[in-house]
Design brief:
The chain is built from 2 helices and 4 strands. With 69 residues, the chain is an alpha+beta fold. The strands form 2 sheets. The chain has a two-stranded antiparallel sheet. It has a two-stranded antiparallel sheet with strand order 2-3. It is elongated, with a radius of gyration of 14 Å. It starts with a strand and ends in a 17-residue tail after the last helix.
């Protein structure tokens, strides 16, 4: 699965008249992380991302945060 959340930057939303552009951060999820988000909520998954230092860049070697705590 993937997680799509609004990017955490000042320029994440741009409005020009009637047009709005919103940037999203896309995070590929391990199966266990997807299951964690379903069972414990997205807040728990995001807390674990923070605890493990998962950033906004895709890192193919990042830890599976559902199994590392």
């Amino acid at each position: 699965g993937i997680l799509a959340i609004q990017a955490l930057a000042d320029f994440a939303t741009y409005t020009d008249g009637d047009n709005t552009v919103t940037l999203y951060h896309i995070v590929p999820l391990f199966t266990e992380e997807f299951e964690l988000a379903k069972s414990d909520g997205i807040g728990e998954l995001l807390n674990r991302f923070d605890a493990q230092g998962v950033g906004q860049l895709v890192d193919l070697s990042r830890p599976n945060v559902a199994t590392t705590l």
